[in-house]
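# step 3/5: fold
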Amino acid sequence: MKLLNMIHKIFRLLVSIILVMAATGLQAESPENDDAERVITTLQDGLIQTMRQGQKAGYNGRLKLIAPVIQQTHDLAAIIRSVLGAHWAKLDADQQQAITQAFQANSIATYADRFDQYDGEQFKVIEQIQLPRGRVLVRSQLVRVDGNPVNFDYVMNRTSEGWRIINIVVDGVSDLALKRAEYSAVLQKNGIAALIDMLKQKTARIEQGHQ
């Protein structure tokens, strides 16, 4: 009888250990999933703050506000490598650095240019979907006062620094695909120097438009 009671106790102990391990495993996955959404929340909070500053801060003020947010939430270096595809490997180190810097400057300038006023918009995260290769898709909406939302789908990759955005799909249109088509046409026709110059000119036009 004592032996039977001991077996029951051991069995209950094993069940308890298994349940604790299972619960711990579930909890271990949640922070990782939450981290991806938290990155998007960081971006969107930064955009709302930039929009609220709007004309008061001016272009340069918005640029200072949004630059660290973009660098914290986007993997801009990975994005430009993906955009260039096979062309990237053909560039030397100086060319790779030059195109990366020009792309980063233009990306941040574009954010500061477009998110320039606040009319009561609010972002909200809709859902998170697991993608192949360990990536995730975070779906969200920009809800406007007129009731017509803009859909933002963020493709995210986990890096050594955490989750980072590697593509944004706005109302079904992939920003990565648009850039690939545009940049590839310039590369094939005029080469990397022309593409770097094009990005610098785009950034300069944005700056000149706010002077």
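# step 4/5: annotate
The helical segments are 2-73, 76-84, 93-114, 175-190, 192-208.
# step 5/5: archive (pending)
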